Amino acid sequence: MPLSCPMTDEAAAYLLKNLRPAEHERFRRHLRVCIACRRETDELGPVVDLLRGLRPDRPEHRPAD
Ligand SMILES: [Zn+2]
User: Fold this and answer.
1) From ligand 1's centre to the CA of 58, what distance in Å?
2) Which controlled-vocabulary keywords does the entry list (predicted)?
3) Is 64 part of any domain?
4) What is the pLDDT of residue 63?
5) If you measure from the C-alpha of residue 59 to the centroid of ligand 1, how many angstroms do you get, rounded to a whole number?
């Protein structure tokens, strides 16, 4: 069972939806069979959520009072 995978590099882009549709789909399918990439997305998920919240181009973003 592989514990590392060259496609883990794409995990962040996948979570940020920065991949092209075909690549996104390919990675999504790859996740089903690759434990290394699943672990990577599990670990990056919360970080990506945080980054999304910090993105300045979000219209609903409000400065803290
Ligand atoms: Zn993988």
Assistant:
1) 31
2) Transcription, Transcription regulation
3) no
4) 67
5) 34
Per-10-residue mean pLDDT, the chain, length 65 = 81 94 97 96 92 71 66
Q: Which of 52, 55, 41 is nearest to 12 (CA)?
A: 41
Cα(44) to centroid(ligand 1), Å: 14
Report if residue 60 sits inside a domain.
no
* Helix runs in 2-59, H state only: 11-15, 21-33, 35-54
Q: How far is the CA of 42 from the centre of ligand 1 (A)?
A: 13
With respect to residue 62, please indicate whether it lies within any of the assigned structural domains. Answer: no
CA of 34 to the centre of ligand 1 (A): 5
* Cα 25 to the center of its chain, rounded Å: 13
